Please model this.
Amino acid sequence: MTEVLKVDPLYPELDKIKKAASVIKAGGTVVFPTETVYGLGANALDAEAVKKIFIAKNRPMDNPLIVHISNIDQLYEVAKDIPEKIINIAKIVWPGPLTFVLKKTDKVPKETTGGLDTVAVRMPAHPVALALINESGVAIAAPSANLATKPSPTKAEHVIDDLFGKVDVVLDSGETFFGVESTVINVTVDPPVLLRPGPFSVEELERIFGKIVIPEQAKGTGEFSVALAPGMKYKHYAPTKKLLVVENRGILRDVIKELREKGYRVVFLCAHEVCKQFQEEKIEIIELGSENNLYEISRNLFDSFRKLDKSNADIGIIHSVSERGIGLAIMNRTRKASGFSSIYSIEDVWKYVGN
Ligand code: TXA
Ligand code: MG
Model:
């Protein structure tokens, strides 16, 4: 049985938080909102509880989880040999959408870290998440609360679609704020290496750290043989429907036209400004938000992928956006969701779609 509790996102009701916290303390699973996406949580220090997360999600056991904390003291419980500089940075940037990979303590079971000696840690900037961790009194391990093959959930209805009956409690606080998962950076090496771009932007990271390493994989361009983060070796969420990323605006109209001439039913995922230019085309559209506010697009992105799968189109076409700020995370998730089907010329289309 799954109990769904509506919780105020800004002023969480204490009785509901206490109820959910008692489930965590008893070794159960609770889905909770964070500022990025919903997380599927369990006591990070309890191997048996953590196993339930993997089972509910159908997640490979060697794909490590992120450990969520609500105060700096908990950081010392789960991580060791933390560079002084990182502690100072953490105190400034947390709570927030930045996850540090650090050396793990013996308290953290291997189940939580997928067998690694390192642990990913963050303090989420969401009142409900912070209240839940506080009331539970333990660090909470939580991957995104989706089935392993689905996009991360940004609304409780996505969670319910994927996990109803498989988790104990769902805390429903409406839409999450950023809509893409946290930035992950490995700080066990110097200079640090970006493992996953997210809402905490590369520009901000560079201002704080000076130099960081940004592997090509972080952009999501081109498939890679060596996985940056353990989770990345798995086939990432790709919609059941084919998704093509048109990286060259100049050919957008022709790509759509040619596909439709060949009889494909096309749905167009576009920024408001771009959708407007296609009003006359009588094409099915899923609006992503304004290009002038990439946070609007990041917030709607995963929902739009789920909508694509539910539509009766054969193919989704999405266009690229700027890689500045949160744009890099948007493009990384988009390229992965497309199975790296980036289109630069009309000929590219037929590499990914039957002619
Ligand atoms: O925003 C987020 O980070 C959300 C919310 C719930 O906090 N969580 C999330 O978790 O996205 P998940 O499991 O979907 O993604 C965790 C990522 C994976 O790519 C995983 O491989 C990487 O972090 N990761 C976790 N522990 C790691 C470690 N010790 N070393 C390297 N990468 C690690
Ligand atoms: Mg995930």
User: Anything to note?
Assistant: Residues 143-144, 152 surround magnesium ion (ligand 2) (CB under 6 Å). Residues 139 and 152 are 21 Å apart (CA to CA).
